[in-house]
Amino acid sequence: MNQADKVYLDLCRHILEHGTKKEDRTGTGTISIFGHQLRFDLQEGFPLLTTKRVPFRLIASELLWFLKGDTNVRYLLENNNHIWDEWGFQKWVESSDYQGPDMKNFGIRSQQDEEFNKQYQEQLTIYQEKVLNDDDFAKQYGDLGNVYGKQWRSWEGADGKVYDQIQYIIDEIKRNPDSRRLLCNAWSASELENQQLPPCHYAFQFYVNEGKLSCMFNMRSNDVFLGLPFNIASYALLTHLIAHECGLEVGELIYSGADVHIYSNHVEQIKTQLQREPRALPQIKLNSTLTSIFDFELKDIELIGYEPHGPIKAPVAV
User: Family, per the entry (predicted)?
Assistant: First the structure.
């Protein structure tokens, strides 16, 4: 059994057996534990789960979106990536400009009411088309506020200066690989009101040892079924990209989660995944001609040998 699937599935079992039922912001309900760590040896393969198909191109395009410093979902929609749609959609339907049918609590109602789900899908399609084709609309309702891309690439300090945290990390690794300050922070108390979703993965730190780059990322809140597989693969890819630019091999990826939970409407999906036998991990191949991670596009990132079990669908709690 590959270690990536093993430690993930062990976490799922632990939550189901020892977690506490809790209410949450979305009204869905969770089974939750507090405080957990997972470790992945990136030399053993790229940690994209094989017990269900995880859409790698969505992960890669989202990470490139972060690295561009972008906060508008238009780039994602242009790359057929819809994982952030609900957050911008919510911003629109809660505004005075929205004139369509009532979309209150659309995340839960769309799961429970087939007729409402049809209306929701129609309005969501309208939203997507407007973001893609209407610049003014995209500026107002496609932008999610000062989320990850803004914080990573354009952190605004109390001194009024703007800091590019990713560029700092790369420069510091090159000049001082033993630094204990290879850290990026996405959590800013003064920005929370301007963010459609406050950062879940709020900080990460790199560590260089014997020519290998390791990364630890921290999460305040984590949807284990839908979110965590994305987060693991995203930070693994980020580690590969930065190691590539800095002339290093990849080392270890470490996940540290606080409120680690399974949503109540994901339990059956988790049980299905637990019955599956893990397969060999894929490998990642980067365009060796590129020297800066900021020049990478989707075509420059190749996933090799990914043969997972089929996907398992589950609703997103918004």
Answer: Belongs to the thymidylate synthase family. Bacterial-type ThyA subfamily.
The neighbour count for residue 104, using CB atoms within 10 Å, is 8
- For the annotated binding site for dUMP, the residues are 25, 180-181, 220-223, 231, 261-263
Instruction: Concatenate the DSSP letters of all residues of 26-92 into one string.
Output: TSS-EEEEEEEEEEEEGGG-----SSS---HHHHHHHHHHHHTT--BTHHHHHTT--TTHHHHHHHH
Q: Which residue has the tokens 């590019």?
A: 164
Confidence of residue 196 (pLDDT cuts 50, 70, 90): low
Per-residue pLDDT, 314: 86
Classified as helix, coil or strand, 180 is coil
Domain ranges of the chain: 3-71+145-304, 72-144
Digit-coded pLDDT (tens) for 238-268: 999 999 999 999 999 999 999 999 999 999 9
Give the total residue count for the chain.
Answer: 318
Distance, C-alpha 87 to centroid of its chain: 14
Q: Quick one: pLDDT at residue 191?
A: 75
Instruction: Give the pTM.
Output: 0.93
User: Could you tell me which residues are annotated as the binding site?
Assistant: 25, 180-181, 220-223, 231, 261-263, 317
Helices (H) and strands (E) in the chain, counts: 11, 10
Determine contact, residues 15/224, Cβ cutoff 8 Å: yes
Is the separation of the CB atoms in 123 and 109 below 8 Å? no
Among all residues, which ones are annotated catalytic? 200
Residue 66: which residues within 8 A CB-CB, separation 6 or more? 148, 149, 152
| pLDDT beyond 80 at 318 | no
Distance CA(295)–CA(241), nearest Å, equals: 11
Main-chain phi, psi angles of 162, to 5 degrees:
-110, 135
